[in-house]
Each structure stands twice: as structure tokens, then as C-alpha cells.
Write a structure and sequence with these properties.
The protein has helices spanning 5-33, 37-44, 48-62, 65-77, 83-96, 98-107, 117-128, 133-158, 166-173, 180-197, 200-212, 218-231, 234-240, 245-267, 269-283, 290-301, 303-310, 319-350, 354-364, 389-418, 425-456, 462-497, 504-528, 536-565, 571-601. The protein is mainly α.
């Protein structure tokens, strides 16, 4: 086979164009959808059946289950979609990918979908030069969409020319009569070919050509198509490598769905293939097995005519060409029917086992047993799967919620430290734990800020840029809350060194202040948990809680002088007591600063 290094480099370039088109298309879609993306996805995956329809429709539209499943993995990695939601979408994508097969089967080889790519690019360029950011985003989406199809078309052009390599088929032909062994072998071939070119649709097209030329029987062509269903999972598996545990589980769920489906199909492969032959005949498309028999008989009885058939030297309208064309239609229809019926039956079985799939992948890929006091980011890992900045913002939003929850635990730690026996081993341990959390808080702020700055360098909508600025302000205030908690620990250390004791009245008042502060912190975390729907009532409750904190601080400050004069406690105890109360009041200020940012930059998007 004449396949040069230049051809191989061309194949790499075609794959690169395909992946770049997928990236640009994804970014354009995210910017066009903007901050509504989470709500859109939530509505589209409300239950397993709407998720199924979503996966089917998107994959049928972009004609690439690889592209759609990679986007699903990205959504799960960003926390936009749960593992259970993603499974139903992936199941739907497996059915949607058969749409391309039907286009080939119904319209033959003359219809080249990529012929529409240049007109789409022409339209997209017009959108790129408009002043409206949304139209520009739509233009980027169309360009990415076009590049994706151009890449797929060029991949088909640059893969080794199987048609002009009869030696390869002669080699495979000796393994075509081993019964179930041949079926397993060709299933493996379909798997490997699809892994290499990362497109089950392209593998289907190659299989259709091989079967149409009479090189393999119809049942072995079905085995190739069956193997391609597993091979197509390689793309999301590669994409999930830089993602979090949830993303890896999603990709593993996709692999598991196709592997288990292939296993049951192999168990009933011969009757299942025969059923599709019968259906093809019943629909009136002829017997798809006849093509192989006809070409094989032609080779045995009229070898010269057979050779002319494949060197394209027969005149147009020759009776052999007419016969071959009619039989090709039968084969293409039969393969499309097999591909679709397999995925539909597989879906009908597996859709009811969604929760079982979730449990299996959670068992196969267990969550890391992390020490809560170790520095780990939950959602931000690997810089984002697709480097799609709008999605990465969503990842940062989820990480900020985790950050706030972790810092919230420091408030409890500081209160526990106040009631811990001084100079004891328990006090030292709790102080060290508080100090460790404060160090973790500092590093989390730096990591999230660095991540957001990298997002800002990407291609963002105007809303996305404003969102990043607000989020940077939020993490700064949350870090200040952690500093305040650590500040209480330092105040207690100075109090111990001075030999000062607190009485029950001071402890009671400090605990009362902590009640207000912790309630304010809980309200803030609640708001951070759903930035797409910042609750106006919760905002009002937060401002009321801030006023309660300030009022109680003023009451305690006013009573402090009288308590010292009345000998309720020593003057120096009153100093440290007021330092702690002042620190808690500052914590309330930092919390309300976060609330102000949410009010000014997030709530207005939902009104």
C-alpha cells in the first residue's frame, strides 16, 4: 500500500482540525448560551428520558457521538451535570450517532455533508464582524461546526486507502470462515479502527465500502459496526484523564454501556443479524447477503469481468454495475438497520439500569479517601478539559462553594478552641488544626485566583468577564474570614501568655455572638451554592443578620466598661474579650461583603 509520511501527517492534521473544530464549536456554544447554560442543561436533563432525547438530538445534529460525549464529560467535570444525568445523555448519543448511517444509507455515497461547510463559514464570517457579542458567538459556533465536519471529511480522505489494498483483505479473508471466532476478530478490528480514527461514523462508512465491494460478508460487517461502538468511547476517555473523579466516572460509564451492550449482542449475534436481514427484506430492500454471494460468484466464474469491475473500466450503464448498485443499497440499508436496532434495543434495556451503572462506576472508580485537612481542589483540576472558559467559570463557582464550606468549619474550630482547656495537649492540637486550615485557605485562594485569571485570558462573553471579577472579590473576602478565625486563635494565645481568665459571662456572650456569625455564614454558603438563582429573601436575611451582629457588638461594647467597673472581670480580660468580639464582627463584615457582591453581580441576571 502506497502510504507516505506526508499522508500520515495529513491524517494528523485532519484529526487536529476535527478536534480544533470541536473546541471552537463548544466555546462558541457556551458564549452564545452564556450564564444560561446551567439552566438549559438542567431543563434538558430533568429526568432520564429528557436526557436521552437530548443526547440523541445533539448527536444527530453534530453527527459525532465523540463530540457530544466529550462535551458531556466536560459538563460533569464542571459540576453542571450529575453522573446519573450524564448517563442518560450518553445513552441517547449512542442512538443519535446512527443518524449519519441513515444519511449514507438513504442518499448513497454522492451526498457529501461537508459540502455545506464553506457556505456556513461564509455566513459565520458575517456574524463575526457584527457588533453584537451574541452574533459573534454564534459565528464562532458555526465556524467550529464547519471545521469539525471538514476534519471528519479529511480524516476519511487521509486514512489508508483500504480499497486499493487487496492484500490486506486477502489476509483478513482467511479469517472470515472461523464461525464465532471470525465474529469476535472483526468486532476487535472495528474497535481498533474506531479508536485510531476516533469516529464510529467514519468506521461505518469504511465498513459499508468493504461490504459493498464484496470483501467481507454481511454478518462480519455487522461485527465491525458492533466493535466501533466500543472504539468510539476512546475520545471521552482521553478527555476525562485531566478531569475530576466525576468526569472519569462519566467516561467509564460510556465505556461500560457499550461493552455490556456488545457482550449481550455477541451472545445472540447470529439470530440478531439474521433478524436484521429479515427486516431488510420485509421492508422491501432485498437481502443484504446477496451482494457478497454475487461478487464472489463473479470472481469465480468471470475473473476478467471481476477485475474490470474493480479497476473502474466497465462502461457506464453496464448490467453488472447496475446489479452491484442495487445490491449496495440493500447492504447499506441492512447495516444501518443493524446499527440502529442494536442501539435501540441496548437503550431499551440499559435505560432502566441507570442507577445501577452509577453504582458500578462509583465502585470501579472510587472517590479518593482524602483527609479533609489536606489541600485539595475538588472541581478545578487540569485546567479544564476543553479549555472552554465559560465552562471553567462554572468549575470555579463550584470550587468557591467548597472553599466557603471549608472556611465555615474554621468558625466552629475557633469557637471550640475558646472553650478548650488552656495549655493542654488538646488545645495545642486544635490550634495546630486551625492553623493548618488557615494555610489551606491561603493556598485555595491562590489556586482559584490563578485559575480564574487563566479563564480571563480565554475567549469570554462580557458577562463572563464581569463574573470573574466578582468571583475574585468573593474569594478574597472568604480568605479574610479565615484570617479572622485564625486571629481569634492568636488572641487566645496572647491571653494565655498574659495569664488572663474569662468568666462564664464572657463565655456566654461570645457564644451568643458566634450564633449570629454562624447563621450569617450559613446564609452566605446557601447563596454561593446556587449562583444562577440568588435568592432575594436570603439576601434580606443576610442583611438583617449583619445588623444583629453590629447591634449585639455595640451592646457588648457598651456594657464592657460597666462590667469592668463593677468587677465582673478584670480590665485585661475585658481587652481580650472585646478583641474577640471585634474579630467576630469583622467576620460578619467580610460575610456581608460577599453578599454585596452577589447582589450586585449575580442577582440582577435572574430578574
Amino acid at each position: 500500500m502506497d502510504y507516505s509520511i506526508l499522508d500520515f501527517l495529513g491524517l494528523l492534521g485532519a484529526v487536529g482540525l476535527f478536534l480544533y473544530g470541536m473546541k471552537v464549536m463548544s466555546e462558541g456554544l457556551q458564549k452564545a448560551a452564556g450564564d444560561r447554560l446551567r439552566n438549559i442543561l438542567s431543563a434538558m436533563t430533568r429526568n432520564r428520558f429528557t436526557g436521552l432525547l437530548t443526547g440523541c438530538a445533539i448527536t444527530a445534529l453534530i453527527q459525532s457521538s465523540s463530540a457530544s460525549t466529550v462535551m458531556v464529560v466536560s459538563f460533569v467535570n464542571a459540576g453542571l451535570m450529575t453522573l446519573a444525568q450524564s448517563m442518560s445523555v450518553i445513552m441517547g448519543a449512542n442512538v443519535g450517532t446512527t443518524f449519519t448511517a441513515w444519511i449514507i444509507a438513504l442518499f448513497g455515497f454522492k451526498v457529501n455533508i461537508s459540502m455545506f461547510t464553506l457556505p456556513l463559514i461564509g455566513l459565520a464570517v458575517v456574524f463575526l464582524f457584527t457588533n453584537k457579542s451574541k452574533l459573534k458567538s454564534i459565528g464562532e459556533f458555526l465556524i467550529g461546526f464547519s471545521f469539525l465536519f471538514m476534519g471528519l471529511d479529511m480524516i476519511s480522505a487521509y486514512v489508508p486507502d483500504l480499497q486499493s489494498n487487496p492484500e490486506m483483505f486477502a489476509y483478513l479473508k482467511q479469517y472470515a470462515s472461523m464461525g464465532i471466532g471470525s465474529i469476535l476478530l472483526f468486532t476487535l478490528v472495528g474497535l481498533v479502527v474506531t479508536m485510531v480514527i476516533q469516529s464510529s461514523a467514519a468506521t461505518f462508512a469504511i465498513t459499508l465500502i468493504m461490504c459493498s465491494k464484496g470483501w467481507i460478508t454481511f454478518d462480519l460487517a455487522c461485527a465491525l459496526v458492533l466493535g466501533s461502538n466500543i472504539g468510539t468511547t476512546i475520545t471521552p476517555l482521553l478527555a476525562s484523564m485531566s478531569g475530576n473523579v466525576a468526569a472519569k466516572r462519566t467516561a467509564m460509564g460510556h465505556l461500560l454501556f457499550n461493552v455490556l451492550g456488545t457482550i449481550w449482542c455477541l451472545c445472540v449475534f447470529i439470530p440478531f443479524a439474521e433478524m436484521n436481514v429479515w427486516l431488510t427484506e420485509a421492508i422491501g430492500q432485498g437481502n443484504p447477503c446477496d451482494l457478497y454471494n454475487y461478487v464472489t460468484n463473479l470472481e469465480a466464474t468471470q475473473p476478467e469481468l471481476y477485475n474490470h469491475l474493480f479497476d473502474n473500466s466497465l462502461p457506464a450503464g453496464h448490467e453488472v454495475l447496475t446489479k452491484i448498485a442495487s445490491l449496495q443499497m440493500s447492504v447499506s440499508f441492512g447495516l444501518s438497520l443493524f446499527h440502529t436496532s442494536f442501539n435501540i434495543v441496548n437503550l431499551a434495556i440499559m435505560i432502566w439500569l441507570t442507577n445501577v451503572y452509577v453504582k458500578i462506576v462509583e465502585w470501579v472508580i472510587p472517590a479518593k479517601k482524602r483527609d479533609d485537612e489536606e489541600f485539595t481542589l475538588k472541581f478545578i483540576q487540569g485546567g479544564g478539559i476543553l479549555n472552554a472558559s465559560e465552562l471553567n467559570i462554572a468549575q470555579a463557582e463550584k470550587e468557591i462553594e467548597v472553599y466557603a464550606q471549608r472556611v465555615g468549619r474554621m468558625i466552629d474550630m475557633a469557637q471550640e478552641l475558646i472553650h478548650t482547656k488552656e495549655k493542654s495537649e488538646e488545645f495545642n492540637q486544635r490550634y495546630s488544626r486551625l492553623e493548618k486550615y488557615e494555610d489551606i485557605s491561603d493556598r485555595m485562594e491562590l489556586e482559584i485566583a490563578h485559575y480564574l485569571n487563566r479563564c480571563a485570558e480565554g475567549r469570554l462573553s462580557n458577562e463572563g468577564k464581569l463574573r470573574i471579577a466578582a468571583m475574585l472579590n468573593i474569594i478574597s473576602e472568604i480568605e479574610s474570614i479565615a484570617d479572622s478565625c485564625m486571629g481569634i486563635g492568636k488572641i487566645l494565645t496572647r491571653k494565655i501568655q498574659a495569664g488572663v481568665d474569662f468568666n462564664e459571662e464572657i463565655y456566654k456572650n461570645i457564644d451568643s455572638m458566634y450564633v449570629y456569625v454562624k447563621e450569617a455564614m450559613d446564609l452566605m454558603v446557601t447563596e454561593l451554592a446556587d449562583l444562577e438563582n440568588v435568592n432575594g429573601k436570603v439576601l434580606i436575611d443576610s442583611y438583617n443578620k449583619e445588623r444583629e451582629i453590629n447591634n449585639f457588638r455595640n451592646i457588648l461594647r457598651g456594657a464592657n466598661v460597666g462590667n469592668i467597673n463593677d468587677k465582673h472581670y478584670e480590665y485585661q480580660a475585658g481587652i481580650y474579650y472585646m478583641d474577640i468580639i471585634g474579630d467576630l464582627e469583622k467576620t460578619g463584615d467580610y460575610i456581608i461583603n460577599v453578599v454585596d457582591t452577589l447582589r450586585d453581580n449575580f442577582r440582577k441576571q435572574n430578574q
